[in-house]
Amino acid sequence: FVLYQVEILDWKTKQQLCFLDKVNDNIVEMAGDSIYCLADPHWYPARQSIRLDPKGKSLRDEEILQHLPVGTTATLYFKDLGPQIGWTMVFLTEYAGPLFIYFLFYFRMPFVYGLNDKLTSSPHPVVNLACICHSFHYIKRLIETIFVHRFSHGTMPLRNIIKNCFYYWGFAAWLAYYINHPLYTPPSYGQNQINFAVIMFLICEAGNFSIHITLSDLRRHGSKIRKIPYPTKNPFTWLFFFVSCPNYTYEVGAWISFTIMTQCVPVGLFTLLCFIQMTVWAKDKHYTYVREFKDYPSIRMAIIPFLL
Ligand SMILES: NC(=O)c1ccc[n+]([C@@H]2O[C@H](COP(=O)([O-])OP(=O)(O)OC[C@H]3O[C@@H](n4cnc5c(N)ncnc54)[C@H](OP(=O)(O)O)[C@@H]3O)[C@@H](O)[C@H]2O)c1
Question: Which residues form the TECR-like N-terminal domain (predicted)?
Fold first, then answer.
């Protein structure tokens, strides 16, 4: 049973913010203790990033001092993550926003395309199909956020949600404006192109969902630890043989399908941006797996089998 003295420094200025004597807690309890001696009482634990290295990763809440490479006097660094917001609010604003915004264009609210087209509907069946697929995608995400994902953090920084809302809401409006526009023209190869895109879309959505279930099962016993995910009996998860983040591969596939279905340039641009963003995240997650697990399957790439 070892008691520690912990000095907490600001990650940027290296000024001492707090000195805790005789602690042997895990990080989240220590963060709780440190609120009292940090200069600002608004620094509740979820706002605090506590690190071993000023520019390193945050220590996990359940990490305990005994298992860290520190002596009985430890120096840790503190970074303020800014105000936090709970996940309920995050999913409501981020995902319900695009759903609602899309409908404003689909139902052609009077202020959208002018009074001549107010509340009219498109003569092209693919426009109805696109609305169903778009809504399905975001409803699925809402349901997954509530019932499937087991996040390791209970909150998200407020500034992230503002940035994400601009991204998701702005793009939803931009895509919906063009797809539901009175001058929209359906895809060049007609019904064959649409049928192919819908089948691809459904496969990718099922794949994405299967991966989310597999990741959630890794945390069935309430832990917050990241384990190596492996393929299961469900064929949609076999993509785990080849990539570290198949949920992103399927997500990009769903947006590519939506682009083929609508044959619309803004949808293609959004898909490209999603792909770039998810590739950056997937590479980061992939390198973390490789670094953390010596036995990590070497055939796996980050997001695209054998390529990327
Ligand atoms: N269209 C877009 O631009 C876009 C962008 C991002 C995401 N998305 C969609 O949103 C979904 C979720 O995104 P995300 O970035 O949160 O995905 P993610 O990082 O893969 O995480 C999904 C869930 O699985 C958990 N998890 C991940 N790896 C794990 C592991 N090795 N062991 C145990 N649990 C693990 C995560 O917990 P943690 O809390 O620990 O991370 C989280 O709860 C994506 O799959 C995608 O469908 C879309």
Answer: 5-80
d(CA 280, CA 205): 21
Q: Which atom belonging to ligand 1 lies closest to the Cα atom of 248?
A: 45
CB 81 within 8 Å of CB 149:
no
Type of residue at 43: W
User: What tokens does 194 get?
Assistant: 């649409």
Phi, psi (degrees; rounded to nearest 5) at 77: -115, 145
Please list the alpha-helical segments (H only) found in 180-264: 190-217, 246-262
Q: What is the pTM for the complete model shown? A: 0.85
Pull the structure tokens for residue 90: 């995050």
User: What token pair was written down for 82?
Assistant: 């800014």
Using the predicted structure, report yes or no on whether residue 291 has a pLDDT greater than 70: yes
User: CA-based diameter of the chain, in Å?
Assistant: 77
The phi-psi region of residue 21 (left if phi > 0; otherwise alpha if psi is between -120 and 50; otherwise beta) is: beta
pLDDT digits (tens, 9 = 90+) for 123-148: 999 999 999 999 999 999 999 988 99
> Do residues 104 and 179 lie in contact, with contact meaning Cβ atoms separated by under 8 Å?
no
Domain boundaries, the chain: 4-82, 85-292
Give the chain's count of helices (H) and strands (E).
8, 6
Q: 245 C-alpha to center of ligand 1: Å? A: 9
198-255 pLDDT, tens per residue? Answer: 999 999 999 999 999 999 999 877 777 889 999 999 999 999 999 999 999 999 999 9
Cα 231 from Cα 238, distance rounded (Å): 5
CATH topology of domain 4-82: Ubiquitin-like (UB roll) (3.10.20)
CA 302 to chain centre: 16
Residue whose CA lies nearest to ligand 1 atom number 35: 215
